[in-house]
Amino acid sequence: MTAAPHHRLDGPDGAPVVVLGPSLGTSMDLWLPQMPALTRAWRVLRYDLPGHGGTPAPGGPFTVEDLAGGVVALLDGLGVERAAYAGVSLGGAVGTALALRAPERVASLVLCCTSPRFGDPGPWRERAALVRREGVGPVVDGAAGRWFTPSFTGADPYVAMLRATDAEGYAGCCDALAAFDATERLAEIRAPALVVAGAQDGPTPPRGHADRLAAGIPGARLTVVEGAGHLANAERPAEVTEAITAHLDRTWKGARR
Length: 257
Ligand SMILES: O=C(O)CC1=CCC(=O)O1
Fold this sequence. Notes:
Number of helices: 11
Number of domains: 1
Helix content: 40-55%
Structural class: alpha/beta
Bound molecules: the ligand O=C(O)CC1=CCC(=O)O1
Shape: globular
Oligomer: single chain
């Protein structure tokens, strides 16, 4: 699947482009907390995963590498030669795959609450089967607990994104996560990389996930955000926005407006 996904461009015409990838069960609006800061200096290109937000449900199985191909198709269609890429969780895995597949297109990389391998494939396959059988209802229950720390009170808009997600799109993304394993290829990544982890992230805890990315990608920096669960950019927007903009300032045309 290399068709370009549903997308949206914001920010100044002609500014360096930053692509933002969302997580399983969320739309491009996952990134709303970062938009005011990012659109001051960058042209921000957000996209939706298959069956999420405005991207149609998939016509068949697909891999994380296929999703990276969709981002390449998007860049080609918009005439964007090179861009920075930031992604959360599955969106981060797409960034990893993109940096491996098309290194010349990736000027800078931010990998948030993600992993080179999302654990054993079995539970992802089971989750895909459950959602194909019963719809997204069973995974909506408990989503706030998977995504945020117990004290976070702003989960509702994010859970609403999951409730609106197409079951086959969600299941296909689970299958893609099951098959994804970039562990042995991290040393090939050439883009300057920042790895951002939520200290209380349950699905991808810093230990065993972010630390592996940071250790495996040459020159990568690691920032662990306290008081943040899996969707750290939503739960701790100020800290994550600052980490991302500082990295982009260093690596992708500098000047913050
Ligand atoms: O299980 C979840 O909802 C958390 C998650 C794992 C990969 C991803 O994109 O989100």
